[in-house]
């Protein structure tokens, strides 16, 4: 038995539903990265980085207090 416990279903493995959600999140992050690579302009790339941080669950209120220029949606 694995020592990993799924936080959604509390099983000792990732259930099918959780695997699907994890794959959707990976696809979202991959698509944001690809769009960022294909978009010209530094401020647009900043926006993609912010969206990636949001997608992985980062508390953006703590990020936005840092000294950096906010991104502009493409």
Number of helices: 3
The amount of beta strand, in percent, is under 5%
Distance between the termini: 46 Å
Relative helix content: 55-70%
| Overall number of domains | 1
For the secondary structure, the number of strands is: 0
Order of helices and strands: HHH
Overall mean confidence score, pLDDT? 82
> Which structural class do the helices and strands define?
mainly alpha
Largest sheet: none
Radius of gyration: 16 Å
Assembly type: single chain
Estimate the global geometry from the Cα principal axes: elongated
Low-confidence stretches: none
Pick out its properties.
74 residues, mainly alpha, 3 helices
Q: Please, could you describe this protein's structure?
A:
- The protein has one domain (23-74).
- The chain has three helices and no strands.
- The N and C termini lie far apart (46 Å).
- Helix 1 (16-38) packs antiparallel against helix 2 (42-55).
- The radius of gyration is 16 Å and the shape is elongated.
- With 74 residues, the protein is mostly helical.
Q: Which secondary structure elements does this structure contain, and how are they paired or packed?
A:
Layout: H1 16-38, H2 42-55, H3 60-63
């Amino acid at each position: 038995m694995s020592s990993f416990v799924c936080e959604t279903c509390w099983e000792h493995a990732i259930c099918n539903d959780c695997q699907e959600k994890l794959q959707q999140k990976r696809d979202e992050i991959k698509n944001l990265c690809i769009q960022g690579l294909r978009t010209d302009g530094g401020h647009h790339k900043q926006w993609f980085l912010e969206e990636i941080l949001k997608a992985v669950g980062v508390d953006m209120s703590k990020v936005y207090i840092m000294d950096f220029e906010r991104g502009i949606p493409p």
